[in-house]
Model the fold of this input.
Amino acid sequence: MKTLWINAGELSGDLQGGALLAALREYAPEESLRVAGMGGDNLARAGQENLLRVEELSVMGIVEVITSLPRIFRMLGRIRREMERLRPDAVLLIDAPEFNFRVAKIAHRLGIPVYYFIPPKVLAWRTGRVKFLKKHVRRIFSILPFEVDFYHEHGMDVTYVGNPLVDLVDYEGIKDIVPVPGRIGLMPGSRKKEVDSLLPAFSGAASLLAERFPDLEFHCIRSSNFSEEYLRSLWKAPAPLVMHDGNDRYRLMRTFPCIMAASGTATLETGLAGVPTLVAYKVSPISYQIALHVLKVKWISLTNLILNRTVFPEHIEKDADPAPLAARMEEWLTRPGTLEAIRCDLDELREKCGRPGSAKRAAEALWKEIA
Done:
């Protein structure tokens, strides 16, 4: 029996890792492949033994990572001890480069082959990261079309598998759902720092909007690592807040004429679902100033990066305060043609992200490597 270690450092990675592992079971049933590592509910349902939980790692921004270092180092020590005990035949890293690069070092020192699914956005941050990947990672499984040429130019083995969110969203199955007037979707994120900063900003925007649009309802898709009570404690607006646990999230998204969302994978989910989205991003002032000097791309939203133009408006730092957010939403609510133009742009996004079957293609490519 072979052993595979899967390391998902974020809830979005757990979501996509779970789809990959479920597809991998077609090639490698449980009696032929043991899977252990770090993950959440989705990887657990697909059959992974979670020795560490993804919820234990929930930080964002450079400063936030630094202040969490003692906890991070304890987790890395546990990973090293478990890998020494299990001696897996391969390690599959999923996203979360700030953490997973350290996991790659551990595996490399133990002589364990490392593969990377959903690699770090080296185009956006430090392109020097590719040197690290070339040394420590045997093959990359890419889900973004613009990454492939970059990795090839740097002499790396890369396989483009398409985007697993295409399957998860299943646009053909939800496209006929009609948006409900007066509903605004909220996706404040999965990390505590971003939720603590963005949900009060969304609440402030809702208070301003309620003065002109008293019939608005705000619907929050709750990340599984936050209780409903905690999220409601951050909501001070007079407008109603309806809470959803995220089940059947893509059908739910389609009922929203538009969404306010934290920057991240969620903004590609909403794009593939065809829902106009205001992208918001807040970190500590120091993290933001550092990012200004190291970011090498024009956008932070994956939807905009893939389309190479601004389709989803990006509200960053002070522009993600209540007044600018409310002004944008008011523009959308009073000019429905603007929303319709965005929906038309999102047809192109689905074309660029490729056909369904990404998880199966990734699983097949991985199995060829480790079988």
